[in-house]
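One such shown below:

_____
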Amino acid sequence: PKNYVFGPTDYLLKRTLEDAGLEVFYRLGTSIEHSGKRVHFNSLIPDDFDKVADVFAGTVRHYNRRWADGYAWGIHYWEIWNEPEGFENMWCPKGGSGENEEEIAARRKEARSGFVRFFVTVLKRLKSEFGDEIKVGGPALQRYRDEWFRQILDACNKAGIAPDFISWHAYENDPMVCNRDAERARKLCDEYGFGNCELIVNEWHYFGENYSWADMQRSSDPKVKARIWNGPDGHNGIRSSCFTLANLVNLQRSKVDQAYFYGCEHTGEWGFKDALQNKYKVYYALKAFGELVDKYQTICESTSEGTITTLAVKDVVGRKALLVVDYGGKEPKTSISFKGVAPDAKATVTLLDYTH
C-alpha cells in the first residue's frame, strides 16, 4: 500500500460514484501524452509487464475489495490502456520514432507485438484474481482496426483466456461507421470463439471533413479555429448536432453493447458548453434525444436511407413520436408519410437547425 498514491483518484471517483450517482468505466494505464514525437515521459513501454499487471491488480483491489484503506464500489469494467497504436504518444518505444519510413514501420510492428503480449499478461493476471467479479478488455483503439483486434484475439485464444470486451473509438463524419464496424467486430469475435465478448465504442464524436487533427491541435490562426470549433460544419456546429442524433439513432439497432459520447465536460471544446457557458448546437441534440428516450420507452423502428435517419417511438399509453434527422441533405424540403395515424390527429413539432 505504501507504494500507491490513491488520494486524487479516490476523490474523483467518490464524487462520480457517490455524489453524482454515476458509474465508472475504469481505464488502466496512460491516457494520452502530447509532449511530442521524441519526448516521452508517461507513455513509454513498461519494462516489466508482470509488475505492471500486479500494480493494476492492486488498483482493482483497492476500489472493489477495500484493500489499502479502499472501497467496495464494485466497478465492473476495467480497460487495458488507451489507443496503443498511438506510436508517438501512447505506447512509445525508448529512443524516438526512427529516422526513415522502413525503420518506423519496423518499430511500429515490434511495438504492436509487444502490446499484444502486455494485453494478454494483464488480462490473465486480473481474471485470475477477480474472475467474473469484473470485466476486463480493451484496448481502446483510435478506430476499429481489424489487424490489431485479430492479433489480440489470436493471442488470447492461444493463451486460453477470453476478453470480456473489445473497445475502440470513433471520430467520424459517417453516422453508419459504428454499425458497420460492430458488424465486423461481432463476426471476428465469433470466429475466435468469443461469442460473449462485448463490443464497446467508448469514445465517439463528430469529426468534420474540412479540418484535420493537425489544424485542431496546432493551428493558431483565429479564422481556422473559428471554422473548426464554431462554424456550421465545425466540431460543435449544426452538422455535428445532426451527426450526433443520427449516430445515436443508428446505435439503437447496432451490435454495439455500449457507446460513450466524448465528451461531456461542462466547459471546453469537447463538451457541450463553451468557457462562457454558451451552449453549443450539440447540446440541443443531446437534450432532444434524452427527452425522447425519457418520455417514450418503446422503440418501434429506426431507419437510415441516404441523408435521412428516423426513429419512431411510443410510450406506455400509446402516444407516438418521430425523430427525423437530415444529415448533409441538399434538398430544401423533406416529405414524411405516416401510417396508422388518424387524419385529425394533432402533433407538436420541434425544430433544431442552424437558427433554432
